[in-house]
Design goal:
By secondary structure, the chain is mainly β. The protein has a domain at 108-349: YVTN repeat-like/Quinoprotein amine dehydrogenase (Methylamine Dehydrogenase, Chain H), CATH 2.130.10. 0% of the residues lie in helices and 48% in strands. It contains no helices and 33 strands. It has strands spanning 12-15, 20-26, 29-34, 38-43, 49-54, 61-64, 70-75, 78-83, 102-107, 115-117, 123-128, 131-136, 141-144, 154-158, 163-168, 171-175, 184-187, 192-197, 203-208, 213-217, 222-226, 236-238, 244-247, 253-257, 269-271, 277-282, 290-294, 298-302, 312-313, 317-320, 325-332, 335-340, 344-349. A 5-stranded mixed sheet has the order 22-23-24-25-29, with no helix packed on it. Strand 3 (29-34) and strand 4 (38-43) form a beta hairpin. The radius of gyration is 19 Å and the shape is globular. Residues 1-7 and 87-92 have low confidence and may be disordered.
């Protein structure tokens, strides 16, 4: 077996000259972010390379505007807002070719873990060291927050894009538009590594260095804690309905049910298929389908909503890569794209 070879039959394959750490997909486009700083935009239908760029210091994440017109690329040295020219919002792939691509560089902005776009693609919030910077889609800076107690580790829009919530040491900090100081603080001691919120902002959760998931119900600031994971929790994501939360922290993925009064006093669904979970992605549309990537080289597709709490389930579908799987994303309801540590990129059909 040759390292980096895609074992399972795929719709298409490609390769980048870097080690992928993240993939993002929207509007018929894929972005692949590499550890050494290479970012490549591909056509989702064919895998054809449309554009590429490089940022010194390496990359950590990439996030497309939902309409595909812009891309935020983040890494240890700062971030870049990368915009398509031409007819990008009206024709898939148009404008993502060489000279039509325009860059707004914000390198030296401090460690930038990631970015979050509003649903209408008009604003993007980017982590910049201990601060959050909000830009318009054209790259113009709209506002910047004061410094948090430590480096921002995750952020998300809440209240339908009317606030930004960020995780950092000491909890979750909420910011209203054009507000430099936090307008709310959900406090919990320790280092928070990731953040997720339900679409209705009823629940806000963090994954933590102390190997727990901490949960706030925003209506009354009541708290829950899911502790006892063997490793720190770095990946967590709500499905589009806000009912199901998936997270890592163990070889098994745990999926918590937030219906009714929430997951307090309940057992999670347990999904067994990886040595270590490297990425999680819910299928768009709210059908309760989850994709995951694992360090052993597998990419799994699950339907955890049909499982029994407290019992382990095996994946409904599994694809094997020739190297550790590092990232996975949904292209639409029937296709996923996955990347491996040797630079391989492949698109697969999901059929449950």
């Amino acid at each position: 077996m040759t390292a980096g070879t895609i074992i399972e039959a795929s719709l298409w394959q490609n390769r980048i000259d870097d080690a992928p750490v993240a993939v993002a997909a929207t509007a018929g486009l894929i972005a692949v972010a590499g550890a050494e700083g290479e970012c490549t935009v591909l056509d989702a239908g064919t895998g054809e390379r449309l554009a590429s760029g490089h940022m010194d210091g390496g990359l950590l994440s990439a996030a497309f505007a939902p309409d595909g017109s812009a891309l935020a690329v983040c890494g240890p040295s700062g971030y870049v807002l990368w915009r398509a020219g031409g007819e990008a919002t009206r024709s898939v792939g148009a404008g993502w070719a060489g000279s039509d691509v325009r860059l707004h560089r914000f390198d030296r902005a401090g460690w930038s873990c990631g970015a979050a776009w509003t649903a209408d693609s008009t604003r993007v919030a980017v982590a910049a060291g201990r601060t959050i910077v909000v830009h318009g889609a054209d790259g113009e800076q709209l506002w910047r927050t004061d410094e948090a107690p430590s480096t921002v580790t995750g952020l998300t829009w809440i209240r339908d894009g009317r606030e930004v919530a960020a995780s950092a040491y000491g909890g979750v900090y909420r910011y209203a538009p054009h507000s430099a100081a936090p307008t709310g603080h959900l406090a919990y001691p320790g280092s928070h590594l990731a953040i997720a919120a339900t679409p209705d902002t009823k629940w806000i959760c963090t994954g933590n260095q102390d190997r727990s998931v901490h949960i706030w119900r925003t209506r009354d600031a009541s708290e829950l804690e899911m502790a006892g994971y063997p490793d720190k929790v770095t990946r967590l994501a709500f499905d589009p309905t806000g009912r199901w939360l998936a997270n890592n922290g163990a070889p098994d993925i745990t999926v918590w049910d937030f219906s009714g009064k929430g997951p307090g006093g309940t057992s999670p669904r347990q999904l067994r298929g990886h040595d270590a979970v490297t990425d999680l992605a819910w299928r768009p549309g709210g059908a309760g389908i989850l994709a995951s990537a694992g360090a052993e080289g597998g990419v799994c597709v699950w339907k955890p909503v049909t499982g029994i709490p407290g019992r382990s389930r095996r994946p409904r579908q599994r694809f094997e890569l020739g190297a550790p799987a590092t990232a996975v994303a949904w292209l639409d309801a029937d296709r996923i794209v996955a990347a491996d540590a040797d630079g391989g990129i492949a698109c697969f059909t999901v059929s449950l």
